[in-house]
Every structure is written in C-alpha cells, then in structure tokens.
C-alpha cells in the first residue's frame, strides 16, 4: 500500500507504507525529454528512456529481488507501475539533469545506489552497500576520459553528514547554473541541451575541494565538506561502457567480472550478446 505526500516542489510522492527511509535501495530517474522546460532539446522524440528503465530495472531485480527500488518519473506508463516497482514518485522534469540530483537528495534510502536508465545489471553487487557503511560515496571513472568521474553509477550513504551536505551543495550549484542559463537565454544566447550537467558539476565541485589557496567563496565550500570520504571503484566492474566492453572482450578480460553495463539501447539489443558469463536466462 502507498500513500501520497505533496512536498514543497509540488510533486506527488508515493512512499512505501512500511517506512519512509529504508536502509538501502536503488534509485532511478526516468523523465521524458519532451517534457523538459529547457528551450533546447536533443533528439527528444527519439529517446526511449522509459523502455531503457524497464530493461535495467528487470535486470536489477533478477539479481536483487529483495532490495527496494525507487523510481522518480513523469512517464504516464511508468506511473501506472506495470512493473510493480517498490516505490514510484511522480516528478516534474526540469532543465538538464537537475531531476537526477534532486532524486539523490530525496532518496528514501540511507544507502542509495543510483543507476542511469541505460544500464544492465549482470551480477549482484552486495559489496557496494557494505562499502557504503564507511564511505560517503562511491563512483567510477569515465572510460573515454579517466580524468572525469562518471555518474551513471553512483553510490551514496546520505546518513553520513558529509555525504548529505555534498548532495545538497551539488543540487544548489545545479539550480544556480539553471538561473544563469535562463538569463543567458533571455539575452539570445544558445547553449548545450544537457545543461545543467550533473556530471560536470560533480567533477567541478570535487576539483574546488583541492584548490590550495581558495577565494572566500570556495573556502566556505571546502570548510563545509572538509572530511568528505569517497572511493573510486573499478569501471570495468560497475560502469562498463560499450567501447570498453568490446575492448575488454577482445583483450581476453574476464567478462564475468563485469556487473554493470552502461550504454544506450541495451533494451533493443539481444541481451545475450552482452551477458558477461555463462548465464543465459
């Protein structure tokens, strides 16, 4: 059974009656690009994020039937919940990737693993939740550019003070960037359709924490997040991109180690092609 809470962002939030905050769980965000209020959209009519979510969700539940999933969405077909997702929260789309960071800030779970919709879970990963007991968050590098951390897989323990503060700071910066973009648009400027970019803001925020002689504004951020403790995990295992997967396959890498694939159109493909072990069901 579910009940509805209307919060300050005018969202209808459906929460499991068993408890608002569950110890651990997975969060997805599936918002329709055509519903974005941003002026620039990229191939929005060609994206099938709802179908990508359905595929990823089913592969996750195959290996973790006992772990609850929370879905933030504006797709009518997903709000009807035909897949029986544990918790479905209606959310309005926003500029760029603000909904993603909003969802992380409002996860009903203490330990949250966020998965992009274009992922496929091939193996259980209970060790991630164990690692989150002693870390603020877990993340992996982007295969195409190892200097960048990729947010397609993101584990966070919001019960830890620094993790919670990091999430709220991340969202504040995304919201501030949106306001700047609105002003630029009013002046007739054009810009990328993916802004504000969650991944870009996360990487920039972490770089600010390492500046040795910060200005007062950056120093304030550093002081508020002093003690933040995170780990970078193996992207071959938890965030394997398409080119990376194909390279690993050719090189003889043990594909049974790959637990999460992350690239577009997995729902369209013969999943056996991208299954990383002997299991074929």
Fold and architecture overview:
With 281 residues, this protein is α/β, with parallel strands linked by helices. It is built from 9 helices and 11 strands. The protein has helices at 49-63, 76-79, 98-105, 126-131, 161-186, 198-208, 216-224, 235-238, 242-251, and strands at residues 2-6, 12-16, 22-30, 69-73, 87-90, 109-115, 119-121, 137-142, 145-157, 230-233, 260-262. It has a 7-stranded mixed sheet with strand order 5-4-3-6-9-8-10, sandwiched between helices. A two-stranded antiparallel ribbon has the order 1-2. A two-stranded antiparallel sheet has the order 7-11. Helix 3 runs antiparallel to helix 5. The relative contact order is 0.15. The model is unreliable at 1-20 (pLDDT under 50).
Entry keywords:
alpha/beta, 11 strands, globular, disordered N terminus
């Amino acid at each position: 059974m579910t009940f509805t809470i209307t919060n300050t962002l005018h969202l209808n939030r459906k929460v499991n009656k068993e408890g608002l905050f569950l110890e651990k769980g997975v969060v997805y965000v599936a918002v329709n690009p055509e519903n974005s209020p941003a002026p620039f959209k990229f191939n929005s009519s060609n994206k099938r994020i709802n179908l990508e979510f359905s595929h990823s969700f089913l592969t996750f539940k195959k290996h973790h039937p006992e772990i609850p999933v929370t879905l933030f969405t504006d797709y009518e077909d997903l709000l009807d919940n035909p897949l029986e997702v544990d918790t479905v929260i209606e959310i309005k789309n926003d500029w760029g990737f603000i909904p993603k960071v909003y969802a992380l800030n409002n996860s009903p779970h203490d330990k949250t693993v966020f998965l992009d919709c274009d992922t496929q879970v091939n193996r259980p990963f209970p060790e991630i939740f164990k690692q989150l007991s002693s870390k603020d968050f877990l993340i992996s590098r982007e295969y195409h550019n190892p200097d960048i951390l990729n947010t397609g897989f993101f584990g966070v323990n919001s019960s830890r003070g620094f993790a919670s503060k990091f999430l709220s700071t991340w969202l504040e910066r995304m919201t501030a960037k949106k306001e700047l973009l609105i002003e630029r648009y009013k002046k007739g400027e054009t810009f990328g359709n993916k802004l504000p970019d969650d991944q870009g803001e996360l990487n920039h925020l972490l770089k600010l924490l390492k500046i040795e002689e910060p200005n007062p504004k950056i120093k304030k951020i550093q002081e508020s997040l002093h003690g933040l403790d995170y780990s970078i995990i193996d992207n071959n295992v938890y965030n394997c991109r398409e080119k990376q997967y194909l390279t690993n396959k050719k090189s003889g890498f043990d594909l049974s180690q790959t637990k999460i694939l992350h690239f577009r159109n997995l729902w369209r493909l013969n999943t056996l092609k991208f299954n990383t072990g002997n299991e074929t069901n």
